[in-house]
Amino acid sequence: MFGTIKNSQNERLDYTFHPGSEGARNLVILGHGVTGNKDRPFVVALAEALAARGIAALRFSFSGNGDSEGNFLDSTISKETSDLGAVLDATRDFKVCYVGHSMGGAVGVLRAASDDRIRWLVSLAGMVHTRAFAEREFGTVKPGEGCMWDEPSCPLSAAYMDDAAKIDSIAGLASKISVPWLLIHGSEDDVVPVQDSLDILEKAGETARLIQIPGSNHVFAGEFTAPMVAHAVEWIVDQVG
User: In three state form, how does the secondary structure of 155-191 look?
Assistant: First the structure.
């Protein structure tokens, strides 16, 4: 429906489109987290649930991830924010809700703070303190030699670490998010602590709300997929009318 989507580096971004009701002009774009891709089970589950309610969804892999073109070593928060801009360019005829998980959540805040094409925003276990995250998770790994969480396909780059340190934290951007904003976070998230969401919520406006899912981990695995999906879908349906 949207043809080939390419970023500013002319790299093709792999995506899957889930049609909604015929003639509907609202679209939910779903972005994944670091080392992830568009086919993470909870991302697929959310896209399918939205389509079942008549809301079109597009899940995509950031460049260098999944089946998208590009080199994983070039993957940074800043580059992924630009990738999201390319997807928004391709979907310009729709009113967009962006849903981002983990690092994809940070991407959503960075983009929504300066791009009014995002009408609604959802952060799933959204990363807020980027420098702290990178140091906590990868501080003992040598860029160029080691990998993120020992994943051979996800080598750690100096570009990633430098970009995360430069951004430092997106909490200060909360006041620039003027659109309706839902944050969902698991209480037992040991990758991005729920405190990240609490910190940015404190600086956000009245349009933001946080839902905590008791017991859930970072990727809303197993029994926690259903409540995350239910909360997100009901909120989105209510917002887009």
Answer: ECCHHHHHHHHHHCCCHHHHHHCCCCEEEEEECCCCC
Q: Which of 58, 49, 59, 2 is nearest to 26 (CA)?
A: 58
Stated length of the chain: 241
Domain of 98, CATH number, reads: 3.40.50.1820
| pLDDT exceeds cutoff 90 at 189 | yes
CA 129 to chain centre: 15
**pLDDT tens profile 94-114:** 999 999 999 999 999 999 999
Q: Is residue 162 part of a domain?
A: no
- Is position 2 within any domain? no
Q: Decide if 119 is inside a domain.
A: yes
Ramachandran region of residue 211, left (φ > 0), alpha (ψ -120 to 50) or beta?
beta
Quote the Cα angle for 228-230-235, to 5°. 100
Cβ atoms of residues 123 and 108 within 8 Å: yes
- Tell me, yes or no, whether 166 lies in a domain: no
Structurally, the chain folds into a number of domains equal to: 1
> Would you place residue 137 in the very low, low, confident or very high pLDDT band (cuts 50, 70, 90)?
very high
Per-chain mean pLDDT for the chain:
97
pTM, two decimals, is: 0.97
Q: Distance between CA 102 and CA 116 in Å, rounded?
A: 21
Dump pLDDT digits (tens) for 172-181.
999 999 999 9
Tokens of 65: 């991830």
Residue 58 domain boundaries: 15-131+172-240
